[in-house]
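Shipment paperwork, digital attachment
Item: protein structure file
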Amino acid sequence: MSVGIILLLILALLLVIFTLQNTVLISLKIFFWEVTDVPLVLTLIICIIAGAILAFALTYPKIWKLKGQLKETQKRLTKLEEQNSEALENPHAEGVEITGGQDDPSFFKD
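Attachment content:
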């Protein structure tokens, strides 16, 4: 079994134990409403799920933007690598050594 499945099973077992230990009924006041006899565990689980959804909703636009920037950067990198390989295959005139029939092939003259 993979590690992820094992961790998920352990978390599910901990959730069951937590639920069985917290069977207290509470009265919940939400703005103008009052809900009575709500299990404490249900309230906690709903709050945790709502918090996770809220956190995901607030961070997803930033993740989406960063993924777009990453794709653009990868495209630019690919284009630059292609230009670099073309430049290595076809050097221009500045990279060619010119010998004009001189007796002394050294670059510096005396």
